[in-house]
Inverse folding.
């Protein structure tokens, strides 16, 4: 993946203030990846008050972000206000993207040198034996009390080999593994969650589930240890908050992560995480992948993502339109 298209929306109020949001469409993964996306986006921009019934998660995320950015600070959660004031840096994990064994080893060394205490490794892209060797290498350098390891299989395990692989990974003191098998197999996922020696987190399994009652039913049936919340994929800011309510009602852990958003989207997710009172490291470091990210108050310092209210947003020159696409 060399390019990612995104859509920015801007709302204004009667006092002349304006705010931006990011409709972070993730082509190839999001349920929003439809031919009529731009027409739906134009319709919702013309009727932002109708966003509550929009079924496109990324559009909800962008417009809800813009609208909340115009809200009075007193209406925001205390944690969100602290994030916006720069008082609440948020710890994040270091993300290790898939590559060959040598490349991943170099990336791991670089993240450790930057001071990360939690690493998240994408697995399933190279030989499983090589991935085990990588984990063995990491654990030879850093004990579990010094470094937390999270894994993301992205559904790469099959039903027949999933448990064997989970058992092979367990000796390396893995904190959790995201989506070991492909989404849409609730019975298999429930069996794995009940028997896995490694706590399992759901990710893609959340996409397309919007009613809060259905969210809770899914968690009660599968019983994961954690859920990973990507607002642009799981119902926008409001949908993510419903997942939080369902998780808290079922005793399920959760954290937030980004889905290749720019700094505008990262700011919104970080503020949401802060408002929910999360304390564990979040997955909010992907903005650094871009060579043309939106400049502004969001930045990374070591293993934390921070907000400096003295830094202005510098938006790219965009040809804003109010006309249908």
């Amino acid at each position: 993946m060399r390019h990612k298209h995104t859509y920015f929306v801007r709302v204004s109020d009667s006092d002349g203030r304006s705010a931006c949001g990011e409709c972070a469409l993730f082509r190839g993964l999001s349920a929003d990846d439809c031919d009529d996306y731009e027409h739906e986006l134009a319709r919702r921009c013309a009727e932002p008050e109708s966003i509550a019934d929009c079924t496109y998660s990324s559009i909800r995320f962008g417009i809800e972000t813009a609208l909340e950015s115009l809200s009075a600070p007193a209406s925001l959660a205390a944690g969100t206000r602290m994030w916006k004031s720069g008082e609440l840096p948020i710890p994040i994990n270091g993300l290790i993207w898939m590559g060959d064994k040598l490349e991943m080893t170099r990336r791991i060394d670089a993240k450790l040198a930057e001071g990360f205490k939690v690493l998240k490794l994408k697995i399933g892209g190279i030989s499983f034996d090589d991935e085990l060797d990588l984990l063995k290498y990491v654990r030879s350098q850093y004990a579990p009390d010094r470094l937390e390891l999270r894994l993301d299989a992205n559904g790469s395990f099959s039903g027949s080999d999933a448990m064997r692989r989970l058992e092979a990974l367990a000796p390396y003191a893995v904190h959790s593994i995201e989506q070991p098998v492909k989404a849409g197999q609730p019975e298999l996922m429930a069996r794995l969650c009940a028997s896995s020696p490694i706590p399992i987190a759901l990710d893609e399994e959340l996409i397309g589930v919007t009613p809060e009652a259905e969210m809770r039913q899914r968690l009660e049936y599968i019983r994961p240890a954690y859920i990973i919340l990507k607002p642009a994929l799981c119902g926008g800011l409001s949908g993510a908050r419903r997942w939080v309510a369902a998780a808290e009602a079922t005793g399920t852990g959760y954290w937030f992560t980004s889905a290749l958003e720019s700094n505008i989207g990262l700011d919104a997710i970080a503020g949401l995480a802060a408002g929910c009172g999360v304390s564990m490291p979040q997955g909010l470091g992907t903005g650094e992948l871009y060579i043309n990210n939106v400049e502004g108050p969001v930045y990374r310092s070591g293993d934390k993502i921070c907000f400096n209210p003295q830094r202005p947003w510098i938006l790219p020159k965009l040809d804003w339109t109010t006309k249908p696409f």
Remarks:
- Residues 75 and 256 are 22 Å apart (CA to CA).
- Residues 85-307 form a domain with the TIM Barrel fold (CATH 3.20.20.120).
- The chain has a mean pLDDT of 91.
- The radius of gyration is 20 Å.
